[in-house]
Design goal:
It is a single chain. The chain is mostly helical and 106 residues long. Helices cover 38% and strands 0% of the residues. Helix 1 crosses helix 2.
C-alpha cells in the first residue's frame, strides 16, 4: 500500500454541520459500520464532506453513484479535492441487472 497521504486541497474549510458529520462518519468507519448515510440538499457540500472524511480516516474509498452523469461529476470533484492521489471511475455497460433465469419447479 502506498505511503501517499490523502490530503484535501480546497480553499474552503468545513462549516455548518460539516465538522460534526465528518466526525460521525469517521467514527463509523473506525467502528466498522457497514452502512452510513449522508443526507443533504443539492449544493450543501456532501461531496466536500466525504472528501474531508476520507482525509480524516486515511483510507482508499469506493464511492457509488446512481447514474453515469453523477459518477463523472463525483470523480471530477474528487480529482479536484485530491490532486495528488489517484481517482478513477467505472461505469457499467449494463442497463440493468438481470439474474439468471429462475425456473420454478412444480
Amino acid at each position: 500500500m502506498s505511503d501517499r497521504k490523502f490530503v484535501v486541497e480546497s480553499p474552503f474549510t468545513p462549516a455548518g454541520d460539516q465538522p460534526e458529520a465528518i466526525l460521525k462518519l469517521a467514527e463509523g468507519v473506525e467502528r466498522g459500520d457497514r452502512f452510513q448515510t449522508l443526507l443533504g440538499i443539492t449544493g450543501s457540500g456532501k461531496s466536500a464532506t466525504i472528501a474531508w472524511t476520507i482525509e480524516k480516516v486515511q483510507r482508499p474509498t469506493l464511492i457509488l453513484a446512481p447514474n453515469k452523469s453523477l459518477a463523472a461529476q463525483l470523480a471530477q470533484e474528487m480529482r479536484e479535492f485530491f490532486p495528488n492521489n489517484r481517482v478513477e471511475y467505472f461505469v457499467s455497460y449494463y442497463d440493468y441487472y438481470q439474474p439468471e433465469a429462475y425456473i420454478a419447479s412444480s
